[in-house]
Amino acid sequence: MNRPFSGPRYQHIARQLKSAIEQGEFAPGKRLPASRVYAQELGVSRATVEAAYGELVAQGWLERRGQAGTFVSSGVVPGPSAPEPVWFGGEQPEPQPFQMGLPALDLFPRALWAKVMGRRLRTQTRFDLALGDVCGEMTLRSAIVDYLRFSRSIECMPEQVFITTGFAASMTLILQTLGRPGDKIWLEDPGFPLIRPLIASQQIAFSPVPVDEEGMNIEAGIANAADARFALLTPAHQSPLGVALSLPRRHQLLDWAAGREAWIIEDDYDSEFRYQGKPLPPVKSLDAPQRVIYAGTFSKSLFPALRTAWLVVPAPLVAQFRQQASYAACGVPLLWQHTLADFIREGHFWRHLKKMRHHYAQRRQWLEQALTEQGFEVIPQHGGIQLVMAVKGDDRELALKGRRAGLAVQALSDWRINSQGAGGLLMSFTNISSLAMAQQQARMLASAIK
Ligand SMILES: Cc1ncc(COP(=O)(O)O)c(C=O)c1O
Q1: 120: CA distance to ligand 1 center in Å?
Q2: 44-99 tens-digit pLDDT
Q3: Pocket-forming residues, ligand 1, beta carbon under 6 Å
Q4: What is the pLDDT of residues 413-434, one digit of tens each?
Q5: Ligand 1 atom at minimal distance to the Cα of residue 298
Q6: Domain's final residue, options 70, 86, 102
Q7: Residues 75 and 127 in one domain
Q8: pTM of the prediction?
């Protein structure tokens, strides 16, 4: 007997379909209903049905035939197949409402990813079983160089790119290569709190620098700690306030770093998503004095479980970084790196980004509308994958109330170091797939905190 199945909705649907195919109810070659029609019938979103179809395509039960639709694969033999997998309950839970740091999990083209990876897996040679380049595979580093040239106006060589397992690993590589105990680092205040313990573990001291409507206040940074060796910041879209670092401040920052021989760490984690206006070029693209270390990640543009990020280091630092990287070797498996390189080279990455910009603008607008309907005030931002809602009173207490009601909101105060300022709730809209869902979550938030 099958064990009771607990998992996301699309997997229930996939399992039911698979069982119908096994029983011969859906014969090989039969066309499945269009996902829109089937979704209406089941009372679920179209994306859920698409995800179920995608799962069965990846497993070989279904096949897509372009415009003609989705069909039961011709090679399928009805009758009981392999036993159902046993579920150990170790599945990833569904994201909580408003959960930050996640891209839209429902919109990632998993079947396409599986196809690209499957092809790589089938065509592997024995050499792919050996350890790869300690700095990351050249195919992937070259694909990143092309992406940065077209999308971010950054000119660099593949040798300057280092593949890591995420932003924390990138920071570790930087600090282990260049840091010395007792060094100071400018941090945005408010800013991303999760990186602070890692910096502290390298015995580097924080110098909090306030953020205003022009981004990090460079003058304040110089006044407080002109002798810092590093400045870590999110110039494209400040995390969490969403402001862009103004052009005069970008030049001020570069002048300070050049004069003091300090290193700027530009965290460009979600710059791909901007919905209004033209983005300013990254600080790295203005880096004549070669003081900028640029950090990117695929966690937001693709998915966080990929654990793939990268650094672009100034050419004079390549040998030092290579040496440090060789102590640990690149942590991203070769198969993932090759798959990702193919995914970029074949244009899937660009298409996905384009699609996601459109969806995120829509999802953001749904949440903004839903929160406004509940009388909340959303602070305007031009891009990114999270938003800030202004609140009066103690935002920590309100965030706690929200979390007790199962809503993954965060208090702006928890992202502050020394700065004082208005309270806010930080939340993500990426996994809100309809206006109705946004309205339901906004109502839950209102009843939790009002
Ligand atoms: C400010 C900031 N930088 C970088 C990252 C990327 O982290 P990772 O590449 O480890 O997923 C995140 C993820 O939430 C972030 O919020």
Answers
A1: 28
A2: 888 888 888 877 776 678 888 888 888 888 766 665 444 443 444 456 678 899 99
A3: 101, 166-168, 192, 234, 239, 267, 269, 297, 299, 304, 309
A4: 999 999 999 999 999 999 999 9
A5: 9
A6: 86
A7: no
A8: 0.81
Q: Which domain holds residue 81?
A: 6-86
CA of 154 to the centre of ligand 1 (A): 20
Mean pLDDT of 132-152: 97
Residue 268 in tokens: 């460009």
330 and 422 inside one domain: no
* Closest atom of ligand 1 to CA, residue 168: 10
Amino acid occupying residue 408: A
pLDDT tens for each residue of 346-401: 999 999 999 999 999 999 999 999 999 999 999 988 888 999 999 999 999 999 99
Nearest to 110 by CA among 433, 339, 384: 339
Q: In what order do the strands lie in the sheet with 263-267?
A: 161-164, 309-312, 292-297, 263-267, 230-233, 184-189, 205-212, 215-216
Q: Could you tell me the distance, in angstroms and rounded to a whole number, from the CA of residue 52 to the centre of ligand 1?
A: 29
> Is residue 204 domain-shared with residue 330, that is, in the same domain?
yes
Examine the domain organization and report whether 279 and 164 are in the same domain.
yes
